[in-house]
């Protein structure tokens, strides 16, 4: 039995529900794999279908979410992008072709961001004000990306994961919304949710963590965030392909296969239960709406370039004796 919603955890705190919309073969675990055009087209079709099912789920609960969409995929399925916007959801950018920021230089990233946003805005006719980097690849080494996003006029970024593992994360970054400072500009940052346990931040916000960890861990993260008070925010992220258990599996190595497909069959009912739980306790907002009502002058400022990495969490890859157990 769930305990009744407590007073301090009532609708004062905000949940931002987000989806990173990309075809399955674009995941980081598949980097370097050759996926033929036929299979790619199949994954694109399936990503569209899975996203449409999620739109139905959200509509049935009158829930509005934020969809960070890969530009190249949007170009391929513009009707889906229109359906997302028509459903009252936010259309935001997940880069042009899911290339990690770590693999681009300043100019290339600027072009990637412009191209992706143009593609989305041409489809919806509305402004795109939010960005999430593929595989959370805004880290101290790519702090200049903050300058690019701010210069381009984005209202917020949601790419800095305050956890430590081998591929991404800035564990000393604030766990609640903050101002991310690049070398010369700054932007509102909405970090994915974490659960603080002693000196560690556990990633509980979604993706593979949501599929692997027991559901109470994320609920504890939401409860902990709510204790911050009225301004509390928990940003969650999922991928449509994580709700498509019958998709053809990528030929990944054993460990990558585990982390990519663990829990995928039970993921949709698990999400439904989470939404039921959270809807009774928290206010859901689209990231852009939250950004619009956030006074950045009251937020902590965090200089990304000088950030150190901080301790590895007990559920992080090293503790498990395997540096590759990371999730997109
Ligand atoms: Zn992605």
Largest sheet: 5 strands, parallel
Number of strands: 12
Head-to-tail CA distance between termini = 32 Å
Number of helical segments with 4 or more residues: 10
Q: Bound small molecules, which ones?
A: zinc ion
Strand content of the residues, in percent? 5-15%
- The oligomerization state is single chain
Topology order in helix (H) and strand (E) letters: EHEHHEHEHEEEEEHHEHHEHE
Written account of the structure:
With 328 residues, the protein is of the alpha/beta class. Helix content is 34%, strand content 14%. The chain has 10 helices and 12 strands. The chain has helices at 37-60, 71-76, 78-86, 106-124, 144-151, 207-212, 215-226, 254-261, 267-279, 287-292; strands at 14-21, 66-69, 90-93, 130-131, 156-157, 178-181, 186-189, 194-197, 200-203, 233-238, 283-284, 301-303. The strands form 3 sheets. Strands 1, 2, 3, 10 and 11 form a 5-stranded parallel beta sheet that branches. Helix 1 links the parallel strand 1 (14-21) and strand 2 (66-69). The protein is globular, with a radius of gyration of 18 Å. It binds zinc ion.
């Amino acid at each position: 039995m769930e305990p009744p919603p407590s007073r301090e955890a009532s609708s004062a705190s905000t949940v931002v529900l987000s989806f990173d919309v990309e075809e399955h073969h674009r995941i980081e675990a598949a980097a370097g794999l050759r996926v033929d055009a036929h299979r790619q087209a199949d994954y694109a079709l399936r990503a569209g279908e899975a996203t449409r099912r999620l739109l139905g789920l959200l509509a049935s609960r009158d829930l509005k979410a934020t969809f960070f969409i890969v530009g190249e995929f949007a170009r391929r399925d513009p009707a889906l992008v229109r359906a997302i916007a028509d459903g009252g959801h936010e259309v935001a950018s997940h880069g042009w072709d899911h290339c990690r920021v770590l693999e681009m230089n300043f100019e290339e990233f600027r072009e990637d961001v412009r191209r992706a946003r143009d593609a989305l805005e041409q489809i919806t006719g509305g402004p795109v004000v939010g960005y999430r980097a593929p595989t959370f690849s805004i880290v101290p080494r790519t702090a200049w990306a903050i300058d690019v996003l701010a210069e381009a006029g984005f209202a917020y970024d949601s790419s800095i994961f305050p956890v430590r593992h081998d591929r991404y994360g800035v564990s000393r970054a604030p766990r609640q919304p903050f101002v991310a400072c690049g070398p010369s500009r700054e932007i509102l940052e909405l970090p994915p949710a974490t659960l603080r346990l002693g000196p560690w931040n556990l990633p509980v916000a979604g993706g593979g963590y949501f599929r692997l960890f027991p559901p109470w861990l994320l609920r504890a993260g939401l409860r902990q965030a709510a204790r911050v008070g009225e301004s509390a925010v928990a940003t969650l992220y999922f991928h449509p392909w994580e709700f498509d258990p019958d998709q053809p599996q990528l030929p990944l190595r054993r460990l990558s296969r585990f982390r990519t497909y663990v829990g995928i069959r039970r993921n949709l009912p698990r999400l439904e239960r989470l939404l039921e739980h959270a809807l009774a306790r928290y206010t859901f907002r689209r990231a852009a709406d939250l950004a619009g009502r956030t006074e950045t002058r009251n937020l902590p400022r965090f200089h990304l370039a000088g950030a150190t990495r901080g301790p590895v969490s007990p559920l992080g890859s090293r503790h498990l004796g395997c540096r590759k157990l990371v999730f997109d």
